[in-house]
Write a sequence for this structure.
């Protein structure tokens, strides 16, 4: 008999040799008794497949005997399908917030198999009335589409009701960024700050906030001048700051480091070593993070934004989000004529369309430079050349 984990089932060979039998626990009835199903087939593999089908049908433990509600399903979906390591900590936090604040209060008590497009539409409208922006309501609908698609795979719904709702149209997002003069001024005001390296890395490397705070000293190759971006640090409710792998293969990247970033990191290490000496036994950085508090703990999620706000105010620059430093990196690279495909690789976008969608409005200047460079390639040579005029033959002449 091969024993498996909870909801995995138990499979054994029948004594008479006629095949295999398996059982799986799929939740509980209203009175608390377990829901258990039995499967018998000639081949063990067929029993395994049938158990998998039952798990999908019953939502891997969702209590179908009580006709599970939207709230029951959403909680199960978050726990089984979204919670790390299946998704990133940031994705889980975003989905959990949308479910708790906007979906459960409106749809939570409705039976999952009774949910329809009108219900979802009412949920979206309610969220819009409470002050949620059109783009955030659109994201809310996307969360429901994703969740109910999973419900369909688990055979808990026949149709995705979120596809029958229409989210409000929002204005296309236009990324904010600093000009090269503004970015230079920001770097000047960051000079000597204990988090100077954080600002330098964000401006010159184009990392996401969680990627910046998740950097470890082992991520840096000082001799090769390379940085390996493989982790992100995110706030997870009930657990605090949690490190996890970046969410896509393209986000896991090795990128070259400018010398200014190397210099800033060297200074950052000196600051951290001094803080370690000052902290004594109370100082701890077991996870080797580059950016830490004065006691060695990971930087909290709000800290980088606060540092940036203070520096922008001191420099007299417009207030932007920390994430807009990433957009600044992209805009400065494109301004220098770096190909969009290279910008995608540096930023770690999962596909080229994301980069184009965010920064295509910066392309006219780049295209103008292409035209000018083509002109510069030929114009000087053509001006130096002396070309004899071409005389057309007379009608009386004979063309050989």
């Amino acid at each position: 008999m091969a024993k498996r984990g909870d909801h995995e089932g138990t499979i054994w060979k029948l004594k008479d040799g006629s095949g295999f039998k398996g059982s799986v626990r799929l939740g509980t009835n209203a009175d608390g008794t377990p829901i258990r199903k039995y499967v018998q087939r000639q081949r063990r593999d067929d029993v395994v497949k049938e158990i998998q089908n039952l798990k999908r049908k019953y939502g891997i433990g969702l209590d179908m005997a009580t006709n599970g509600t939207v709230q029951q399903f959403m909680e199960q979906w978050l726990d089984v399908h979204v919670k790390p390591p299946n998704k990133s900590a940031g994705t889980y936090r975003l989905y959990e917030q949308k479910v708790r604040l906007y979906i459960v209060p409106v749809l939570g008590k409705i039976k999952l198999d009774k949910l329809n497009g009108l219900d979802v539409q009412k949920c979206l409208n309610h969220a819009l009335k409470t002050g949620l922006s059109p783009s955030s309501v659109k994201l809310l609908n996307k969360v429901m589409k994703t969740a109910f698609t999973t419900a369909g795979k688990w055979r808990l719904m026949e149709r995705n009701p979120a596809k029958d709702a229409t989210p409000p149209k929002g204005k296309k997002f236009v990324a904010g960024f600093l000009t090269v003069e503004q970015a230079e001024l920001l770097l000047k005001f960051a000079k000597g700050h204990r988090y100077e390296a954080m600002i330098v890395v964000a401006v010159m490397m184009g990392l996401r906030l969680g990627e910046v705070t998740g950097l470890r000293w082992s991520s840096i190759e000082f001799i090769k001048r390379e940085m390996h971006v493989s982790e992100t640090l995110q706030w997870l409710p009930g657990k605090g700051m949690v490190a996890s792998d970046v969410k896509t293969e393209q986000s896991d990247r090795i990128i070259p480091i400018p010398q200014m970033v190397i210099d800033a990191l060297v200074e950052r290490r000196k600051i951290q070593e001094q803080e370690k000496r000052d902290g004594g036994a109370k100082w701890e950085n077991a996870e080797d993070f580059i950016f830490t508090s004065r006691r060695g703990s990971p930087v909290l999620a709000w800290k980088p934004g606060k540092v940036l706000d203070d520096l922008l105010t001191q420099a007299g620059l417009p207030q932007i989000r920390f994430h807009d430093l990433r957009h600044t990196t992209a805009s400065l690279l494109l301004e220098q004529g770096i190909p969009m495909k290279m910008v995608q690789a540096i930023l770690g976008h999962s596909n080229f369309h994301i980069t184009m969608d965010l920064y295509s409005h910066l392309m006219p200047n780049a295209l103008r430079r292409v035209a000018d460079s083509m002109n510069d390639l030929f114009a000087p040579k053509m001006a130096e050349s002396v070309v004899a005029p071409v005389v057309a033959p007379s009608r009386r002449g004979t063309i050989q």
User: Anything to note?
Assistant: Confidence is low (pLDDT under 50) at residues 1-7.
